[in-house]
Design brief:
The complex is a heterodimer. Chain A contains 6 helices and no strands. In chain A, helix 1 packs antiparallel against helix 2, helix 1 runs parallel beside helix 3 and helix 5 runs antiparallel to helix 6. Chain B has a domain of 174 residues: Rossmann fold, CATH 3.40.50.300. In chain B, a hairpin with a 2-residue loop joins strand 9 and strand 10. Chain B is globular and about 55 Å long. Chain B is of the alpha/beta class. Chain B has a 6-stranded mixed β-sheet, sandwiched between helices. In chain B, helix 3 crosses helix 4 and helix 3 packs parallel to helix 6. Classes of the chains: A mainly alpha, B alpha/beta. Chains A and B meet through helix 1 and helix 3 of A and helix 8 and helix 10 of B.
């Protein structure tokens, strides 16, 4: 019937929008890490300039979710989908915010001499990106099994963060002259670790959407 | 033998166990079949309704939910050619057993209909009617007390207390429906059946009826048939979904509306039915 097709169209449009936001967050993170590793402040600035668009998209998704709830009164799987998207959009926007913070750190670090440390943040970044991409794929296909696997893999990023933390503290002690730059890198590592946590939130929402199961804090 | 038409293949799950903590079962229905002549309208319905909850029956038109509601106080008995199989137990007594006092049954199991049907009498006499014909009381002061209490229970007292002698027909549609509820409550039933009680009312009157239902469940077991799924979601503790004379799923209302167990229920709830 027309009314139901109309709801289907709106849900489909909402899905497209949240995936677009996910893509924006993913791209922001990728480009922020590129600007850090390649010392390209121009790319970092592009990430910062693009953030307004990400914010606007989040607000549009908020409005669309509220409209659907108020006007269509979705139930069951439709309700779970809309609620999941409504909770997922701010998470994706925060991931993009963390990417902006990494971009700011990159601009600061790029203005200073390059660190010769053996510290490898690219593994953490790569892991965070893979988690984010896989989480968005799992959401698209309502795949709770994959979502649960991604949640488990967050421990790897936490381990990498702990390792990085101790390594940077060591560097601050042994090479005090680089302490400011080390501290900036520590913040970058923390942003990546937080992104892992946010991806976990996305996966928990996917499990809720697919199975109506609350696995948060379990 | 009843004429059986080919039924579409639908998944049916037995009643989920009642989750309400230590709630006593007020109404237990076991394998209830119901026939209008040769046409079977209800197929082996089994369900338990705990006391002092609101149970909502939902489903598309013709699914049998109103027919089923009316089996709970034998209102279908007045329709010629109907036949019932199975059991309907209220407080463990089969209401279809031989020797059942149907008048007493309907006193214990009151009913409110879709269209308010006040008698062309005063507001007071409408509420007092059941008390008088059931000879519950004829003493003036006691009768007045019971009428006042029923009108208070139906959240109508403050609106009519100064005009009890005026015609019930002068009330608004929503007030008339609450008057009918007061009339049903006056004889202190144990179970209250409501067949789309708010379908003809505006949103404000509907809201008053829904608030009333919420308050009444402290004292009564309420079974409501509604076409309005949002209403079922708002007022009921448990919801039963009917289709083609079968009980497809019964569960806690929040479960039915967020994560039903049966796909057919989900298709109906999400408007993708058929």
């Amino acid at each position: 019937m027309d009314t139901h097709r109309h709801l289907d169209d709106e849900l489909s449009s909402l899905r497209d929008r949240v995936l677009l936001l996910g893509g924006e967050a993913e791209q922001a993170l990728e480009r922020a890490m590129y600007s850090l590793s390649e010392r390209d402040s121009e790319v970092a600035q592009q990430v910062l300039d693009h953030d307004d668009q990400v914010d606007r998209l989040e607000v549009e998704i908020d409005r669309q979710c509220i409209d659907i709830i108020a006007l269509r009164q979705p139930a069951a799987r439709d309700l779970r989908f809309v609620i999941s998207v409504a909770k997922m959009a701010p998470v994706l926007e925060r991931i993009a915010d963390h990417a902006c913070n990494i971009a700011r750190a990159a601009i600061d670090l790029n203005n200073e001499p390059e660190l010769k440390s053996v510290l490898d943040l690219s593994r953490m970044a790569e892991h965070a990106l893979i988690m984010l991409r896989s989480a968005l794929d799992a959401f698209t296909s309502s795949d709770a099994v994959t979502a649960r696997e991604i949640i488990k893999s967050d421990s790897e990023i936490n381990d990498l963060y702990n390792h990085t933390f101790h390594r940077l503290i060591e560097l601050m002690v042994t090479e005090p002259a680089t302490a400011t730059r080390d501290a900036r890198l520590l913040f970058v590592a923390k942003h990546l670790e937080r992104i892992g946590d946010y991806v976990t939130d996305i996966c928990e929402l996917t499990v809720y959407m697919a199975e109506a199961a609350f696995i948060k804090h379990t | 033998m009843p004429v059986q038409t080919a039924a579409p293949r639908i998944e049916v799950r037995p009643s989920a166990p009642v989750q309400t903590s230590s709630a006593k079962t007020k109404v237990a229905v076991r394998e209830l079949d119901f026939f209008y002549g040769k046409v079977q309208a209800l197929h082996s319905i089994s369900i338990e309704i705990p006391e002092r909850i609101v149970m909502a029956f939902i489903g598309p038109s013709g699914c049998g939910k109103s027919t089923f509601l009316r089996t709970l106080n034998r209102m279908n008995d007045v329709i010629p050619g109907t036949r019932v199989g199975g059991e309907v137990l209220i407080d463990d007594h089969d209401i279809y057993a031989q020797g059942t006092d149907v008048v007493d049954l309907r006193r214990r199991v009151g009913m409110v209909f879709q269209k308010s049907n006040p008698f062309p009498k005063s507001i007071f006499d409408n509420v007092a009617y059941g008390l008088r014909i059931n000879r519950v009381t004829s003493k003036g002061s006691e009768l007045e007390g019971r009428v006042e209490q029923a009108l208070k229970d139906a959240a109508l007292w403050s609106e009519v207390k100064d005009r009890l002698k005026t015609s019930a027909l002068s009330l608004s549609g929503g007030q008339q429906q609450r008057l009918c509820i007061a009339r049903a409550l006056a004889i202190r039933p144990e179970v209250l059946l409501m067949d789309e009680p708010a379908s003809a009312l505006d949103p404000i009157a509907t809201s008053k009826i829904e608030e009333l239902i919420f308050d009444l469940k402290k004292q009564y077991t309420i079974v409501i048939v509604t076409h309005n799924m949002q209403q079922a979601a708002r007022v009921s503790d448990r919801t039963a979904f009917f289709l083609l004379g079968k009980l497809i799923e019964v569960n806690a209302t929040e479960k039915i509306f967020t994560a039903p167990n049966v796909k057919t229920t989900e298709d109906y709830i999400t408007g993708r039915f058929g």
